[in-house]
Write a structure and sequence with these properties.
heterodimer; A: 286 residues; alpha+beta; five-stranded antiparallel β-sheet; four-stranded antiparallel β-sheet; 11 helices; globular; B: 305 residues; alpha/beta; three-stranded antiparallel β-sheet; three-stranded mixed β-sheet; 6 helices; 16% strand; elongated
Chain lengths: 286, 305
C-alpha cells in the first residue's frame, strides 16, 4: 500500500517547523525517523495533509549533559546507544534501547519519535516515565515542558497540542547509588513488548530501600509507574521484590486483546517485575 | 549448451541442478550450461510437470534432463568415433572434449564437434541425424489417468521425513524454547546437498511460523485483526533454532536419478512435532496452534487465576 498524497515540507529550523505546524492547523505530522509513521502512512492509518520533516534541522540531534540530560528530537536510538557519556548519564536508557526494534530500525528510529508515537508497549516512553523525565514541546507560541507521566494520555495519544512538536526529551541526571534494570516479554525478537518492566532503585549501604520507581509498559494504555512509596525503608531483597511485584500486579488494569489476555498480562507483571526488581536490588531471584 | 525446462521453478534451484546434471553427463562445467526456465505454452511442451508441485522436478524432470543429456552425449560420442575411426565405446566426454582415453592425441572440443552438425550436416555419420538437439518427454508407469471419481495420484514417488523436537516451556511466561530439533529425511538420491539443506531449513521456518506465531484472528464483531505483517507474525532469523539434519538415502527405482524430491522440507512436520512436544510437556492432548506465548501460558495456568 502507498500513502495518500501529502505535502512534504523540510524546514531548516525549529522556528520554521513550528510555523508550518501552525499553518497546517493540526493536519500535519512531524517526520523524523519514520519507523512508525512510515508504516502508518503506507497503511493509510495516518493521512495527514502534510509531513514536516525535521530530520535535517541542524543541531536537533544534540545531547546535552548538565544538571539534567537533554536529548534532541532527532537523536536516533543507534546514536544514543553509541554515546557513551549519555549511556553513563542515563543508565536505564542503556538497558532499554537494545530492546527497541532491530539493529537496522534503530539507525533511523528516534527517541523523541517513539515518545510522540506513544505506543503503550514502547521502551523509550516507559524509561522516560519511570525516571520522571520531561518532554520539551515547541510551538510558535513558545516552549513548554511537561512531565512524561502526564504527557502520555492513552494508546498513541499524548498531551501534545496539534501545533506543537517535541523539541527534546529531558532526563534527570543519574544519581550515584541508583541501580537500574529493564526486561520485557515479546512474542518475537524486536516486537513491541507484551509487558515491559523498568526499575530505578536506590538502596543504601545497609541494604535498605531509599527510593524506587517501577515502570510497567504494555500493561495499560500508557506507561504506568507503580505506587511503591509504602515499601521505602524496607530491606531490599528478593522477598521484597516479590511482594512489590505482586502488589503492582494486583493494582494494574491490564489491556485485553488478541495478543494477550488481561490475566496473562497481570501474571507477566508479577513474574517480570519480581525479576527486574530483584536484579536492581542486587538480590538473587526468589 | 542450452537446456529448456517446462518445470516453471520459482526459486527451488532447478537451473542449478539441471546444469549440474547436464554438465556431469557431457563432461562440461555448470558454467557451460544455460538453463532456460521461462515457459510459454505456445512454444514449449506443457506437461503435468509444469507447475511446481508433487516434487516434479526431482522426481520427473531431473530424469528427463538426464536422459536428454545422455542422448546428446551419445550423439557427440558417435560423431567423434566416426572422426577418429574408433568404436563409439572408446570415446569419453571429459574436460570439455570428446576423447579416446587410450590415445591422448585423439581429442576434439565439444564445441567444434557440435559445430559440424551445424556447418556440415551432410558430412555426419550416416546413422546420425543433423543437429545436436534432444527433447525428452518422460512418462512414469506410476502415473495413471484419473479414475471414475476423477481422482489421480500425481506423485511419482514419495520421500520420507521424521522430525524430533525437544522443548522447554516456562510456565510463568509461556515461552517455548526449542532445545533441540532434529530432522531426518529420505529423499532418495541427493541431487544437490546444499539445495536439499536449504529447502529443509526454509520448510522448517514455515513450519515454525505455523507452530508458534501465524494466526488468522477475527474479533467478536468479525473484523480481521491480523491483516498485516505487524500482527500476522512470521518467524525472523532470531526465532530460528539450530536444526540438525540427517539423511537416510534409499534411491527410488521409478526414475533414472533415484531422487524422490523433498520440497516443503519440514514445513508439514514442524507444527506436528512441536505440538506433540508441547502435549508431552503439558500432559494434555488438546493442543491448538499456534503455540503463542499467551496460549501456552493459558495452558499452563488455566484454573489457577
Amino acid at each position: 500500500v502507498k500513502p495518500a498524497a501529502f505535502e512534504y515540507c523540510r524546514p531548516d529550523t525549529v522556528d520554521e517547523a513550528v510555523a508550518l505546524l501552525a499553518e497546517f492547523g493540526g493536519d500535519a505530522n512531524v517526520l523524523a525517523g519514520g519507523m512508525s509513521l512510515g508504516a502508518m502512512l503506507n497503511m493509510r492509518l495516518a493521512r495527514p495533509a502534510a509531513l514536516v520533516d525535521i530530520k535535517r534541522i541542524p543541531g536537533l540531534d544534540e545531547v546535552r549533559i548538565d544538571a539534567e540530560v537533554r536529548t534532541g528530537a532527532t537523536l536516533t536510538q543507534a546514536r544514543a546507544l553509541e554515546h557513551a557519556a549519555l549511556m553513563r548519564a542515563v543508565p536505564l536508557l542503556a538497558l532499554a534501547l537494545p530492546w527497541v526494534g532491530h539493529f537496522q530500525t534503530r539507525n533511523r528510529g528516534t527517541l523523541a519519535g517513539s515518545v510522540a508515537h506513544a505506543d503503550p508497549s514502547a521502551e523509550t516512553p516507559l524509561a522516560l516515565a519511570t525516571l520522571d523525565g520531561e518532554v520539551e514541546l515547541a510551538s510558535a507560541r513558545g516552549v513548554r515542558r511537561m512531565k512524561a507521566r502526564e504527557f502520555f494520555v492513552d494508546v498513541m495519544t499524548t498531551a501534545r497540542e496539534p501545533d506543537e512538536m517535541i523539541a527534546a526529551l529531558v532526563w534527570p541526571a543519574h544519581r550515584p547509588g541508583t541501580r537500574h534494570a529493564f526486561a520485557e516479554i515479546a512474542q518475537r525478537h524486536g516486537d513491541f513488548a507484551i509487558v515491559a518492566c523498568a526499575v530505578a532503585a536506590e538502596v543504601d549501604a545497609g541494604g535498605v530501600l531509599r527510593g524506587l520507581a517501577l515502570g510497567l509498559g504494555g500493561v495499560e494504555s500508557r506507561p504506568v509507574v507503580a505506587d511503591t512509596g509504602a515499601y521505602l525503608g524496607e530491606r531490599a531483597d528478593a522477598r521484597l521484590a516479590a511482594a512489590i511485584a505482586a502488589d503492582a500486579a494486583a493494582r494494574v488494569d491490564p489491556l485485553n486483546d488478541h495478543k494477550a489476555s488481561a490475566a496473562y498480562r497481570r501474571a507477566l507483571v508479577r513474574t517480570l517485575a519480581a525479576q527486574v526488581l530483584a536484579q536492581a536490588f542486587g538480590a538473587e531471584v526468589a | 549448451v542450452t537446456v529448456q525446462l517446462d518445470s516453471t521453478p520459482n526459486g527451488q534451484g532447478h537451473q542449478t541442478v539441471a546444469a549440474q546434471i547436464v554438465a556431469q553427463t557431457l563432461g562440461l562445467t555448470p558454467d557451460d550450461i544455460d538453463v532456460v526456465t521461462e515457459a510459454d505454452t505456445r512454444t514449449i511442451a506443457w506437461s503435468i510437470a509444469s507447475g511446481n508441485y508433487s516434487n516434479r522436478f526431482a522426481a520427473a524432470v531431473s530424469s528427463a534432463v538426464l536422459l536428454a543429456a545422455r542422448r546428446v552425449g551419445d550423439k557427440l560420442r558417435q560423431m567423434a568415433a566416426d572422426e577418429f575411426r574408433v568404436p563409439v565405446e572408446a570415446v569419453e566426454l571429459a574436460n570439455g572434449t570428446a576423447r579416446v582415453a587410450a590415445d591422448p592425441s585423439l581429442a576434439i572440443g565439444v564445441g567444434r564437434l557440435a559445430a559440424r552438425a551445424h556447418w556440415n550436416p551432410a558430412g555426419m555419420p550416416s546413422a546420425v541425424t543433423p543437429g545436436v538437439h534432444e527433447t525428452v518427454v518422460l512418462d512414469a508407469p506410476s502415473l495413471t489417468t484419473p479414475d471414475a471419481a476423477d481422482r489421480v495420484a500425481s506423485a511419482l514417488t514419495y520421500g520420507f521425513v521424521a522430525d524430533l523436537a525437544a522443548i522447554e516451556i516456562d510456565p510463568a511466561t509461556g515461552r517455548i524454547e526449542i532445545v533441540r530439533y532434529v530432522s531426518v529425511h529420505d529423499v532418495g538420491t541427493i541431487l544437490n546437498p546444499m539445495i536439499v539443506e536449504g529447502q529443509i531449513h526454509g520448510g522448517f521456518a514455515h513450519g515454525l511460523g505455523a507452530a508458534l506465531f501465524e494466526e488468522l484472528v477475527h474479533d467478536r464483531e468479525g473484523n480481521f485483526v491480523t491483516g498485516s505483517f505487524a500482527e500476522y507474525l512470521c518467524p525472523t532469523a532470531p526465532e530460528m533454532p539450530r536444526v540438525d539434519i540427517g539423511h537416510v538415502s534409499t534411491p527410488t527405482p521409478v526414475n533414472l536419478t533415484g531422487a524422490k524430491g523433498m520440497g516443503d522440507g519440514s514445513s508439514m512436520l514442524a507444527p506436528a512435532a512441536l505440538a506433540n512436544a508441547a502435549a508431552d510437556a503439558l500432559g494434555r492432548e488438546d493442543i491448538e496452534l499456534p503455540l503463542s506465548l499467551a496460549r501456552v501460558w493459558a495452558l499452563c495456568n488455566e484454573g489457577r487465576e
